[in-house]
Every structure is written in structure tokens, then in C-alpha cells.
Amino acid sequence: MSFAMIVSVGLPTFEPIAQGKVKCQSCKKLTPLLPKCAYCGNSPVKKADARVTTIEHETRKIPFPKREVDSPELEVGKTQIIQEGKYGQRRLTFRVTRLGSKVISRKQIAEQVSKPVEEIKGIGKLEPKPSITTKMFVEDLEFRIIYEDDPSLPRGEERIKTPGLKGSIEKWYEIE
User: Fold this and answer.
1) Which of 143, 137, 139 is nearest to 168 (CA)?
2) Which pLDDT tens digit goes with each residue over 57-83?
3) Contact 63, 91 (CB under 8 A)
4) Digit-coded pLDDT (tens) for 16-42
5) Any long-range contacts for 168-171 (C-beta under 8 Å, 24+ apart)?
6) CA geometry: angle at 13 spanning 8 and 15, to 5°?
7) 3-class secondary structure, 26
8) pLDDT tens column, 80-105
9) Is the Cβ–Cβ distance between 56 and 5 less than 8 Å?
10) Which residues are within 8 A (CB) of 147 and not within 5 positions of it... i.e. 6 or more apart?
């Protein structure tokens, strides 16, 4: 809270007062309205009779609104802040008049408002894709035997023309 002081003095009796001047309670002379009398150096009025006007400032936070929106980029169950929220501020200025320690008047003379910034939270709506794993299996293959007639061989005799080799095949599978 900050203060700017404007002092006006009220006298306990109704005596004529020249513009901007008060009658000193000690020397009874008309003196400019200052903290000390121009003639005797004492305070021209009693503190209990002093009417003091100050300018006071009061600052209040304004809460920011919150909103949730569907976010097709986020997976279901996840959230993300899309826009940070910021508090707003209301600054009130008052003219406060006190007589001694008692407040006799408090009047709002100005108001400044800065609007809050809305917080926006994204809520995930994207269904997760099933995780697909690709796996390779190698399968052994037996060689095939092919029989051919050979008239040059005696009946019932077999001879290997080309030796067979075992083979293999790679098979790829997608597993969910």
C-alpha cells in the first residue's frame, strides 16, 4: 500500500480562517498552513484536531478463468497446458480523510483493471494405435530328392547326380 499525503487542518472552534492559513493555538496569530507556526515554531493545531487526507492504493488479484478443450493430437488420458493463465489486477485508489486516528471519509477516486488471461488445457482424444511388432522367423527347408532314370546304371542301383543342400526361408510376421 502506498501513500501520498495531503494535509488539511480542522480547528476545534469556529474561528475565521484566511485562505490557506490557520490561527496558531499557541501564539494566536494567523500563520500559513505548515507543520510549524511561522511565528512561534510550535505546531499550529493539536494533533488530535488535525484532519489528514491521504491517497491510498489497494491492489487485488483477479483470478483467471480455466477452460478445457479436446485435443486430437494428445492420446486419451493425457493433458497439456496450451495457454498459461495469468492473474488480472484491479488497482483501486482512495482518498481517505482522518481526524486524529479515526477515518471519517473514504472515497474511491480511481480504478485501473488489467484483465486476466484464460488458462487453456488440452484433453487427449487421440486413440492410441495398437503397437505392432514385426518379427522374423527362419524356417529350415529340407532338400527335395528328384529321381531320374539312367540306362547306364545296373537295375536297382542309385547314384547321386547332384548332392542336395538344406535351405532356409525367412518369414516376417506382424504381432499386435
Assistant:
1) 139
2) 999 999 999 999 999 888 888 999 999
3) no
4) 333 467 778 778 888 776 777 888 887
5) 168/138, 168/139, 168/140, 168/141, 169/138, 169/139, 169/141, 170/136, 170/137, 170/138, 170/139, 171/136, 171/137, 171/138, 171/139
6) 80
7) coil
8) 999 999 999 999 999 988 877 788 89
9) no
10) none
Other CB atoms within a 10 A radius of the CB of residue 31 amount to: 20
Does the pTM surpass 0.70? The reply is no
Task: Show Cβ contacts of residue 36 under 8 Å, excluding neighbours closer than 6 positions.
Answer: 42, 43, 44
Residue 156: all three cell numbers together? 536297382
**What is the Cα–Cα distance from 129 to 43, expressed in whole angstroms?**
85
- At residue 132, the 3 state secondary structure works out as coil
Q: Which amino acid is at 54?
A: T
Could you tell me the CA-to-CA distances from 170 to 53, 86, 167 in Å, in that order?
Answer: 95, 60, 10
Q: Give the residue from 118, 132, 119, 122 showing the smallest Cα distance to 77.
A: 122
